[in-house]
Specification:
Blueprint: E1 9-12, H1 18-29, E2 33-38, H2 41-55, E3 60-64, H3 70-84, E4 89-92, H4 107-134, E5 138-143, H5 156-178, E6 183-190, H6 196-204, H7 209-218, H8 228-239, E7 250-253
Parallel strand pairs: 1-2, 1-4, 2-3, 4-5, 5-6, 6-7
Helix pairs in contact: 1-2, 1-8, 3-4, 4-5
Length: 260
């Protein structure tokens, strides 16, 4: 099957690497034109370059983008208007985690985690909806986490921020539906995925990446860690008209963890 999102105009945050790069690439492969944004401008540009080399010049563009900054969101939306000709798919992928339990987590880290994971979606949707309404039907896809549904004693900031993404997505979905915008909003909740974040985790704990992957896989009923395209496939589905009757919902991509 190909061309599932042909003609769609998509903005993907956190597109410099990992999940964001996978989302951007698979959307382009299925026919969308993509604006790749990231605070890492060179990384976003590299993602766009790779996409254009594979799928043709003008398929992807990039800009530097601090998702916690409302002014940067205005620039990103303007760039979508200018470079893509509009916007009807918004993938709020940028995110971060912080260390520390409720006694050791620094408040500055807590606030930064919420700024990147939650405030970014508030700013993004508020700034993007006017343009998306002009190019409806549309889809907002917010990347949450299974950690937004299942808690851990070691990451209160991450748990709480990703839970906020889950509920914020529902509120946005109902707002758009009530106002007949023809714009849907859903959240995706992955568990462990093999991205550069796991490389950093391995270094932080001073263990081999392979050992870490085996340890994480043992926690998952399916017994393997996800790949970026396992999540990007769901992004394509939600971006496409195949999911036109789905809004205010959550997709769990957790290998069965939430079933336990």
């Amino acid at each position: 099957m190909s061309g599932r999102v042909a003609g769609k105009l998509a903005l993907v945050t956190g597109a410099a690497q990992g999940l964001g790069a996978a989302h951007s690439t698979l959307l382009a492969k299925e026919g969308a034109r993509v604006l790749c944004t990231d605070i890492n401008a060179n990384g976003a540009a590299n993602t766009a370059q790779i996409i254009n080399e594979r799928f043709g010049a003008g398929t992807a563009y990039s800009i530097e983008h601090d998702v916690t900054n409302a002014s940067d969101w205005e620039k990103a939306v303007d760039a979508a208007r200018e470079k893509l000709g509009g916007l009807n798919v918004l993938v709020n992928n940028a995110g971060m985690g912080v260390a520390g339990n409720i006694e050791t987590c620094k408040f500055e880290d807590w606030k930064r985690c919420f700024a990147v994971n939650v405030d970014s979606i508030f700013h993004g949707c508020q700034k993007a909806l006017p343009l998306m309404r002009e190019h409806a039907p549309g889809s907002i896809i917010n990347i949450s986490s299974i950690a937004g549904l299942i808690a851990s004693d070691t990451m209160p900031a991450y748990n709480s921020s990703k839970a906020a993404v889950w509920m914020l997505s529902k509120s946005i979905a109902l707002h758009c539906a009530k106002n007949n915008m023809q714009i849907r909003c859903n959240s995706i909740h992955p568990t462990f995925v093999d991205t550069p974040i796991l490389d950093g985790t391995a270094r932080h704990h001073n263990i081999d990446k392979g050992v870490l992957m085996e340890k994480l896989a043992r926690q998952i009923p399916l017994k393997f860690v996800g790949e970026p395209n396992d999540i990007a496939n769901a992004v394509v589905y939600l971006a496409s008209d195949e999911s036109r009757f789905m809004t205010g919902a959550e997709i769990k991509l957790d290998g069965g963890i939430s079933a336990m």
